[in-house]
Amino acid sequence: MNEIEKRQMNMNRRAFLSKSALGIGGAALTSLLGYGCNIGGTSDPAKAISNKINAALGQGKLHFAPKAKRVIYLFQSGGPSQYELFDYKPLLDKMRGKNLPESVRNGQRLTGMSSGQDAFPLVGSQFKFKQHGKSGTWMSELLPYTSKIADEICVIKSMHTDAINHDPAITFFQTGSQQPGRPCIGSWLSYGLGSMNENLPTFTVLLSRGTGRKFGQPLYSRLWGNGFLHSLHQGVQFRSAKDPVLFLKDPEGITKQSRRNMLDHISELNHMHMEEFGDPEIASRISQYEMAYRMQTSVPEIMDTSGEPDHIYKMYGAQSMQPGTYAANALLARRLAEKGVRYVQLYHMGWDHHDNLPGALKNQAHDVDQASAALVMDLKQRGMLDDTLVVWGGEFGRTNYSQGVLTDTNYGRDHHPRCFSIWMAGGGIKPGMTYGETDDFGYNVAKNPVHVHDFQATLLHQLGIDHEKFTYKYQGRRFRLTDVSGSVVRDILA
To answer: Which residues are paired to 473 by β-bridges?
Structure first.
């Protein structure tokens, strides 16, 4: 039996209808979009297809004028304690050692780490607080550099979340759902807004490990995954190792021209398969090959910070010269944003302080304080802060009571989802502002609550996107980053 006969035998009713649908649908889509693809050279057929399809679906078109073009998200993984950083509660000092009143706790569920405690002794911060700037923002002595930019940032003290453990809480912040499998924020923005630099990924990820708890909660690559969106939109992790991006470097013996010829031939084969099967993932594969080829030049250039002047290194701190540190990644985040990367996700691990909090948190704050403030001021001096949204914060806060034994010099804090603090800067956010309040115990939100979906809706809004209209149809349902809730926090918008 020859190949034609085999194909005819395999063309059953289901296959016939499937092929017919692809053919008719493909013809209609081609007529509607009017695109053509050039395979080979430096052209990117997948990008052309993606842009055309997104335009036809209403994606890629902003719902209103944006205030921000890009986002740098400084995610503090583990849950920073708001009581030692931003939320000054003198009542906790006065009531130190006394049990948390049940009327305040009100039966809130606890983690397995403190649910077995017979008592919940209140404990205030061991560190001093002062008001800073014209705004009078309260900050701890652990943040001497951040306190200097008090009039540049908006501190939100009334964040709250639904999750009480790390993995679902981080997943919730990054994807809008506690269950894994949804696209993360960066992937949504890559899908909706596209690239500003064809030589670099739209969405990049940087990781650093803190000195506060070196072997704390791990992070999983699905946190920067594309979920049900095309793989073209997944985050690209930049490492501090010799090869910043895995599998980017050509093997020994392969010349640049050999690589180009190979990609041209692979693109031709992939294009044939794309025309036959209509699978958009094939277009994504073509685009990824081309991006990897271009990144062979652009990534080493962006990772080489040796050309930065001494005063910039001094601004970010001595650790900015040590690849893989938070300070070095903060400087790299500015360079990526400057080159047109749409979304830079910086994760800093080590904030999960169930014990030895005073000593561990002091080290952890030292890791990030100077570089975080430097990033804001660096963006401002370059005229980029106005259209760059900077976010600093973790997945939840810490309890106002001590986990385990409370001593005169030591204590720990468990997870607390009911209220915690983050800050935002630039990108059309009001500077020099404190938004929201917690009660005197710092246990519940007392004024202007901000849910995770509210935060996500506000972030999208600053980029010109209506979170309720920005959807993707998958398995018969239209999904969105904010799921089925969320409101823009308009009081913090400039």
So the answer is: 478
Tokens of residue 226, six digits: 């594309």
What domains can you pick out in the chain, each with its CATH number? 64-251+301-492 (3.40.720)
Tell me how far apart the alpha carbons of residues 65 and 42 are, in angstroms, rounded to a whole number. Answer: 32
Rounded to 10 degrees, what is the CA torsion of 219, 222, 224, 226? 180
For residue 128, which phi and psi values (nearest 5 degrees)? -80, 150
Structure tokens at 150: 């008090």
Q: 72 and 391 in contact (C-beta within 8 Å)?
A: yes
CB 325 within 8 A of CB 364: no
- Yes or no: say if 136 and 148 are a contact pair by the CB < 8 Å rule: no
Sequence-ordered list of residues with C-beta below 8 angstroms from that of 307, at least 6 positions apart, any chain: none
Task: Give, in order, the Cα–Cα distances in Å from 200 to each of 225, 250, 255.
Answer: 17, 18, 22
DSSP code of 230?
A: -
Residues 6+ apart with CB under 8 A from 120: 99, 100, 105, 114, 399, 401, 402
What is the DSSP code (8-state) at residue 176?
S
Tens of pLDDT along 216-237? 788 999 999 999 998 889 999 9
What is the pTM (predicted TM-score) of this model? 0.84
- Do the beta carbons of residue 236 and residue 359 sit within 8 Å? no
The H or E element that residue 450 is part of is strand 450-451
Give 242-286 pLDDT, tens digit per residue. 777 766 676 777 777 776 777 776 777 877 777 777 777 777 776
Burial class (CB in 10 A: 0-12, 13-18, 19+), 476: exposed
DSSP letter, residue 239: P
- Six token digits for residue 470: 């920005």
Contact yes or no for 85/365 (Cβ under 8 A) = yes
CA distance 280 to 231: 10
C-beta of residue 76 within 8 angstroms of C-beta of residue 365: no
